[in-house]
Write a structure and sequence with these properties.
The complex is a heterodimer of chains A (about 150) and B (about 190).
Chain A: H1 10-29, H2 31-49, H3 58-77, H4 96-99, H5 107-118, H6 123-129, H7 134-152
Helix pairs in contact in A: 1-2, 1-3, 2-3, 3-6, 5-7, 6-7
Chain B: H1 6-18, E1 24-29, E2 36-41, E3 44-49, H2 58-65, E4 69-71, H3 77-87, H4 105-114, E5 123-124, H5 125-131, H6 138-146, E6 159-160, H7 173-183
Parallel strand pairs in B: 1-4, 5-6
Antiparallel strand pairs in B: 1-2, 2-3
Helix pairs in contact in B: 5-6
The chains are: A mainly alpha (about 150), B alpha/beta (about 190).
Chain lengths: ~150, ~190
Amino acid sequence: MEAVAPIPPFERFYEERRDEIFGYLARLLGRDAAEDAFQETFLRALRGYAKLEHGRHLRAWAFTIATNVAVDTRRKAMPTEEPEEIVVTDARPPYAEIEHLVGELPPTERAAVVLRYGYDLSYDDIGAALDSSAEAARAAASSGVRRLRRRHT
Amino acid sequence: MTGVPEELDRRFREAAASEALLDVAYDVTESPIGPLLVAASDQGLCRISFDPEPEHELDALARAFGPRVLRSSAPVDRVRRELDEYFEGKRQDFDLAVDLTPLPDFQRMVLEELVRVPYGHVDTYGGLAQRIGRPRAARAVGGALNRNPIPIVVPCHRIVGSTGSLVGYAGGLEIKEALLGLEGAILPG
Protein backbone atom coordinates (compact mmCIF):
# COMPACT_ATOMS: atom_id res chain seq x y z
CA MET A 1 0.00 0.00 0.00
CA GLU A 2 1.34 3.40 -0.95
CA ALA A 3 1.62 5.77 1.96
CA VAL A 4 -0.12 9.10 1.51
CA ALA A 5 2.52 11.75 0.87
CA PRO A 6 1.80 14.57 3.29
CA ILE A 7 2.04 18.16 2.10
CA PRO A 8 5.20 19.60 3.65
CA PRO A 9 5.24 23.03 5.27
CA PHE A 10 5.81 25.53 2.45
CA GLU A 11 9.16 26.62 3.87
CA ARG A 12 10.57 23.13 3.36
CA PHE A 13 9.18 22.85 -0.18
CA TYR A 14 10.57 26.30 -1.01
CA GLU A 15 14.02 25.58 0.42
CA GLU A 16 14.27 22.32 -1.47
CA ARG A 17 13.17 23.76 -4.81
CA ARG A 18 14.26 27.40 -4.94
CA ASP A 19 17.78 26.95 -6.31
CA GLU A 20 16.94 24.58 -9.13
CA ILE A 21 13.84 26.54 -10.11
CA PHE A 22 15.91 29.71 -10.22
CA GLY A 23 18.53 27.92 -12.34
CA TYR A 24 15.81 26.59 -14.65
CA LEU A 25 14.27 30.04 -15.12
CA ALA A 26 17.70 31.59 -15.68
CA ARG A 27 18.31 29.09 -18.47
CA LEU A 28 14.96 29.75 -20.07
CA LEU A 29 14.81 33.51 -19.66
CA GLY A 30 18.24 34.85 -18.79
CA ARG A 31 19.20 35.93 -15.34
CA ASP A 32 17.48 39.31 -15.17
CA ALA A 33 14.06 38.17 -16.33
CA ALA A 34 14.48 35.07 -14.15
CA GLU A 35 14.35 37.21 -11.00
CA ASP A 36 10.81 38.43 -11.60
CA ALA A 37 9.76 35.03 -12.88
CA PHE A 38 11.16 33.40 -9.74
CA GLN A 39 9.05 35.53 -7.44
CA GLU A 40 5.97 35.00 -9.60
CA THR A 41 6.54 31.23 -9.67
CA PHE A 42 6.61 30.87 -5.90
CA LEU A 43 3.77 33.32 -5.32
CA ARG A 44 1.67 31.20 -7.71
CA ALA A 45 2.81 28.12 -5.83
CA LEU A 46 1.66 29.69 -2.55
CA ARG A 47 -1.73 30.55 -4.07
CA GLY A 48 -2.20 26.95 -5.11
CA TYR A 49 -0.60 25.35 -2.07
CA ALA A 50 -3.66 25.28 0.18
CA LYS A 51 -5.59 23.45 -2.54
CA LEU A 52 -3.11 20.59 -2.92
CA GLU A 53 -4.51 17.23 -1.91
CA HIS A 54 -1.22 15.42 -1.37
CA GLY A 55 2.53 16.01 -1.47
CA ARG A 56 3.36 13.78 -4.45
CA HIS A 57 5.01 15.19 -7.57
CA LEU A 58 5.77 18.51 -5.92
CA ARG A 59 8.99 18.84 -7.89
CA ALA A 60 7.18 18.41 -11.20
CA TRP A 61 4.47 20.75 -9.94
CA ALA A 62 7.10 23.43 -9.27
CA PHE A 63 8.58 22.96 -12.75
CA THR A 64 5.08 23.16 -14.24
CA ILE A 65 4.44 26.52 -12.62
CA ALA A 66 7.90 27.79 -13.58
CA THR A 67 7.38 26.68 -17.19
CA ASN A 68 4.02 28.48 -17.33
CA VAL A 69 5.51 31.63 -15.83
CA ALA A 70 8.37 31.51 -18.35
CA VAL A 71 5.91 31.17 -21.22
CA ASP A 72 3.85 34.09 -19.90
CA THR A 73 7.02 36.15 -19.49
CA ARG A 74 8.09 35.55 -23.07
CA ARG A 75 4.59 36.30 -24.30
CA LYS A 76 4.61 39.65 -22.53
CA ALA A 77 8.10 40.49 -23.68
CA MET A 78 7.46 39.73 -27.34
CA PRO A 79 3.75 40.16 -27.99
CA THR A 80 4.13 40.24 -31.76
CA GLU A 81 6.24 37.15 -32.09
CA GLU A 82 5.39 33.52 -31.76
CA PRO A 83 3.96 33.45 -28.24
CA GLU A 84 5.30 30.15 -26.93
CA GLU A 85 8.84 30.78 -28.05
CA ILE A 86 11.26 30.24 -25.19
CA VAL A 87 14.89 30.91 -25.96
CA VAL A 88 17.67 29.48 -23.88
CA THR A 89 20.00 32.38 -23.24
CA ASP A 90 22.21 31.09 -20.47
CA ALA A 91 24.08 28.08 -21.68
CA ARG A 92 26.15 26.71 -18.84
CA PRO A 93 24.81 23.21 -18.83
CA PRO A 94 25.26 20.05 -16.78
CA TYR A 95 24.43 18.16 -19.98
CA ALA A 96 26.96 20.20 -21.87
CA GLU A 97 26.87 18.67 -25.32
CA ILE A 98 23.30 19.52 -26.14
CA GLU A 99 22.17 22.29 -23.91
CA HIS A 100 23.46 25.17 -25.96
CA LEU A 101 21.51 23.74 -28.87
CA VAL A 102 18.11 23.23 -27.29
CA GLY A 103 17.16 26.84 -27.96
CA GLU A 104 16.62 25.79 -31.56
CA LEU A 105 13.86 23.36 -30.61
CA PRO A 106 10.12 24.02 -30.59
CA PRO A 107 8.88 24.85 -27.07
CA THR A 108 7.43 21.50 -26.02
CA GLU A 109 10.43 19.51 -27.24
CA ARG A 110 12.76 22.03 -25.63
CA ALA A 111 11.01 21.83 -22.24
CA ALA A 112 10.94 18.01 -22.45
CA VAL A 113 14.67 17.82 -23.29
CA VAL A 114 15.65 20.34 -20.58
CA LEU A 115 13.54 18.64 -17.91
CA ARG A 116 14.67 15.12 -18.88
CA TYR A 117 18.37 15.65 -19.46
CA GLY A 118 18.98 18.84 -17.52
CA TYR A 119 16.92 18.02 -14.42
CA ASP A 120 16.50 14.28 -14.63
CA LEU A 121 12.74 14.39 -14.21
CA SER A 122 10.81 11.21 -14.96
CA TYR A 123 8.55 11.16 -18.01
CA ASP A 124 5.56 10.99 -15.68
CA ASP A 125 6.67 14.22 -14.06
CA ILE A 126 7.49 15.87 -17.38
CA GLY A 127 4.08 14.85 -18.69
CA ALA A 128 2.54 16.55 -15.65
CA ALA A 129 4.72 19.63 -16.14
CA LEU A 130 3.72 19.92 -19.79
CA ASP A 131 0.09 19.19 -19.09
CA SER A 132 0.17 16.03 -21.19
CA SER A 133 0.99 12.35 -20.72
CA ALA A 134 4.20 10.44 -19.97
CA GLU A 135 4.10 8.96 -23.49
CA ALA A 136 3.75 12.39 -25.06
CA ALA A 137 6.65 13.66 -22.92
CA ARG A 138 8.85 10.75 -23.97
CA ALA A 139 7.93 11.35 -27.61
CA ALA A 140 8.68 15.07 -27.32
CA ALA A 141 12.07 14.48 -25.69
CA SER A 142 13.19 11.86 -28.20
CA SER A 143 11.93 13.86 -31.15
CA GLY A 144 13.87 16.85 -29.78
CA VAL A 145 17.05 14.82 -29.45
CA ARG A 146 16.59 13.38 -32.97
CA ARG A 147 16.07 16.83 -34.39
CA LEU A 148 19.32 18.04 -32.75
CA ARG A 149 21.23 15.04 -34.08
CA ARG A 150 19.93 15.62 -37.61
CA ARG A 151 21.02 19.23 -37.51
CA HIS A 152 24.36 18.82 -35.85
CA THR A 153 25.87 15.58 -37.06
CA MET B 1 23.98 25.18 -9.71
CA THR B 2 23.09 28.85 -9.41
CA GLY B 3 21.78 29.67 -5.96
CA VAL B 4 18.99 32.16 -5.43
CA PRO B 5 20.46 35.60 -4.67
CA GLU B 6 19.82 36.59 -1.06
CA GLU B 7 18.07 39.79 -2.02
CA LEU B 8 15.67 37.92 -4.29
CA ASP B 9 14.94 35.40 -1.54
CA ARG B 10 14.21 38.24 0.87
CA ARG B 11 11.94 39.98 -1.64
CA PHE B 12 9.91 36.84 -2.21
CA ARG B 13 9.43 36.27 1.52
CA GLU B 14 8.31 39.86 1.94
CA ALA B 15 5.88 39.69 -1.01
CA ALA B 16 4.39 36.43 0.27
CA ALA B 17 3.55 38.10 3.57
CA SER B 18 2.36 41.42 2.13
CA GLU B 19 0.03 39.62 -0.27
CA ALA B 20 -1.44 37.76 2.72
CA LEU B 21 -0.65 34.35 1.25
CA LEU B 22 0.70 32.81 4.46
CA ASP B 23 -0.99 30.76 7.15
CA VAL B 24 1.97 31.43 9.44
CA ALA B 25 5.03 33.68 9.19
CA TYR B 26 7.92 33.10 11.54
CA ASP B 27 11.38 34.38 12.27
CA VAL B 28 14.10 33.95 14.84
CA THR B 29 14.85 36.82 17.21
CA GLU B 30 17.68 37.33 19.68
CA SER B 31 16.99 37.79 23.37
CA PRO B 32 18.96 37.82 26.63
CA ILE B 33 17.67 34.30 27.36
CA GLY B 34 18.78 33.03 23.95
CA PRO B 35 17.38 33.05 20.42
CA LEU B 36 13.62 32.61 20.18
CA LEU B 37 11.49 31.42 17.32
CA VAL B 38 8.41 33.62 17.01
CA ALA B 39 5.47 32.91 14.72
CA ALA B 40 2.28 34.74 13.83
CA SER B 41 -0.91 33.72 12.03
CA ASP B 42 -3.29 36.28 10.52
CA GLN B 43 -5.05 36.28 13.94
CA GLY B 44 -1.97 37.16 15.94
CA LEU B 45 1.06 35.78 17.70
CA CYS B 46 0.74 31.98 17.76
CA ARG B 47 4.10 30.58 18.91
CA ILE B 48 7.20 31.49 20.87
CA SER B 49 9.70 28.68 21.12
CA PHE B 50 12.87 28.52 23.20
CA ASP B 51 14.15 26.10 20.57
CA PRO B 52 15.03 28.39 17.65
CA GLU B 53 15.52 25.57 15.11
CA PRO B 54 12.61 26.08 12.65
CA GLU B 55 12.78 22.49 11.44
CA HIS B 56 11.55 21.42 14.92
CA GLU B 57 8.47 23.65 14.68
CA LEU B 58 7.43 23.64 11.02
CA ASP B 59 5.31 20.51 11.08
CA ALA B 60 3.45 21.46 14.24
CA LEU B 61 2.74 24.95 12.89
CA ALA B 62 1.52 23.53 9.58
CA ARG B 63 -0.75 21.04 11.36
CA ALA B 64 -2.26 23.69 13.59
CA PHE B 65 -2.65 26.59 11.16
CA GLY B 66 -2.19 25.35 7.58
CA PRO B 67 0.71 24.36 5.33
CA ARG B 68 1.67 27.81 4.06
CA VAL B 69 4.33 28.37 6.71
CA LEU B 70 7.21 30.62 5.65
CA ARG B 71 10.03 32.48 7.32
CA SER B 72 9.34 36.20 6.82
CA SER B 73 10.41 38.92 9.17
CA ALA B 74 7.92 41.78 8.67
CA PRO B 75 4.86 40.02 10.15
CA VAL B 76 6.71 39.42 13.43
CA ASP B 77 8.49 42.80 13.62
CA ARG B 78 6.09 44.10 16.22
CA VAL B 79 6.44 40.99 18.38
CA ARG B 80 10.20 41.35 18.17
CA ARG B 81 10.03 45.01 19.21
CA GLU B 82 7.74 44.35 22.17
CA LEU B 83 9.89 41.46 23.35
CA ASP B 84 12.99 43.69 23.13
CA GLU B 85 11.24 46.32 25.25
CA TYR B 86 10.14 43.69 27.74
CA PHE B 87 13.65 42.36 28.16
CA GLU B 88 14.99 45.91 28.54
CA GLY B 89 12.49 46.38 31.41
CA LYS B 90 10.63 49.08 29.42
CA ARG B 91 7.42 47.13 28.88
CA GLN B 92 5.15 45.40 31.38
CA ASP B 93 2.16 44.58 29.20
CA PHE B 94 2.17 43.26 25.66
CA ASP B 95 -0.13 44.93 23.15
CA LEU B 96 -0.23 41.88 20.92
CA ALA B 97 -3.14 39.83 19.66
CA VAL B 98 -2.57 36.14 20.34
CA ASP B 99 -4.00 33.23 18.40
CA LEU B 100 -4.98 30.35 20.69
CA THR B 101 -7.62 28.94 18.32
CA PRO B 102 -6.11 25.49 17.71
CA LEU B 103 -5.98 24.69 21.44
CA PRO B 104 -8.48 22.53 23.33
CA ASP B 105 -11.12 24.55 25.21
CA PHE B 106 -9.78 23.82 28.67
CA GLN B 107 -6.26 24.89 27.81
CA ARG B 108 -7.49 28.04 26.12
CA MET B 109 -9.56 28.90 29.18
CA VAL B 110 -6.52 28.45 31.44
CA LEU B 111 -4.26 30.56 29.21
CA GLU B 112 -6.83 33.33 28.81
CA GLU B 113 -7.10 33.56 32.60
CA LEU B 114 -3.33 33.41 32.97
CA VAL B 115 -2.89 36.56 30.90
CA ARG B 116 -4.59 38.46 33.76
CA VAL B 117 -1.80 37.68 36.23
CA PRO B 118 0.02 41.02 36.18
CA TYR B 119 3.69 41.74 35.60
CA GLY B 120 5.80 41.14 38.69
CA HIS B 121 3.11 39.04 40.42
CA VAL B 122 2.84 35.32 40.82
CA ASP B 123 -0.03 32.94 41.44
CA THR B 124 -0.14 29.20 42.15
CA TYR B 125 -1.48 26.31 40.08
CA GLY B 126 -4.27 25.90 42.61
CA GLY B 127 -4.99 29.64 42.56
CA LEU B 128 -5.33 29.63 38.80
CA ALA B 129 -7.55 26.53 38.98
CA GLN B 130 -9.78 28.39 41.42
CA ARG B 131 -9.97 31.44 39.19
CA ILE B 132 -11.33 29.41 36.30
CA GLY B 133 -13.90 27.83 38.61
CA ARG B 134 -12.25 24.40 38.66
CA PRO B 135 -10.65 24.39 42.14
CA ARG B 136 -9.71 20.71 42.00
CA ALA B 137 -8.04 20.95 38.59
CA ALA B 138 -4.60 22.22 39.71
CA ARG B 139 -2.85 19.28 38.07
CA ALA B 140 -4.69 19.77 34.77
CA VAL B 141 -3.83 23.46 34.96
CA GLY B 142 -0.18 22.45 35.27
CA GLY B 143 -0.48 20.33 32.14
CA ALA B 144 -2.13 23.17 30.23
CA LEU B 145 0.67 25.56 31.23
CA ASN B 146 3.36 23.06 30.36
CA ARG B 147 2.11 23.04 26.77
CA ASN B 148 1.67 26.82 26.53
CA PRO B 149 2.54 27.65 22.91
CA ILE B 150 3.26 31.33 23.65
CA PRO B 151 5.46 31.53 26.77
CA ILE B 152 6.66 34.93 28.03
CA VAL B 153 3.73 36.81 26.41
CA VAL B 154 1.23 34.38 27.92
CA PRO B 155 3.04 34.44 31.24
CA CYS B 156 3.13 30.87 32.51
CA HIS B 157 6.38 31.78 34.30
CA ARG B 158 4.20 33.64 36.83
CA ILE B 159 2.63 30.43 38.12
CA VAL B 160 4.55 28.68 40.90
CA GLY B 161 3.98 25.93 43.46
CA SER B 162 2.01 26.67 46.62
CA THR B 163 5.23 26.77 48.66
CA GLY B 164 6.84 29.23 46.27
CA SER B 165 9.00 26.64 44.55
CA LEU B 166 9.30 27.24 40.85
CA VAL B 167 8.15 23.65 40.11
CA GLY B 168 8.67 23.49 36.35
CA TYR B 169 8.98 25.35 33.08
CA ALA B 170 9.04 24.10 29.52
CA GLY B 171 12.00 26.38 28.73
CA GLY B 172 13.95 25.26 31.82
CA LEU B 173 13.84 26.56 35.38
CA GLU B 174 16.75 28.98 34.83
CA ILE B 175 14.65 30.85 32.29
CA LYS B 176 11.64 30.93 34.60
CA GLU B 177 13.87 32.32 37.34
CA ALA B 178 15.39 34.89 34.97
CA LEU B 179 11.97 36.14 33.83
CA LEU B 180 10.67 36.44 37.40
CA GLY B 181 13.91 38.18 38.37
CA LEU B 182 13.56 40.63 35.48
CA GLU B 183 10.02 41.41 36.66
CA GLY B 184 11.13 41.78 40.28
CA ALA B 185 8.55 39.23 41.38
CA ILE B 186 8.37 38.26 45.05
CA LEU B 187 7.73 34.58 45.57
CA PRO B 188 5.26 33.37 48.26
CA GLY B 189 6.20 30.97 51.04
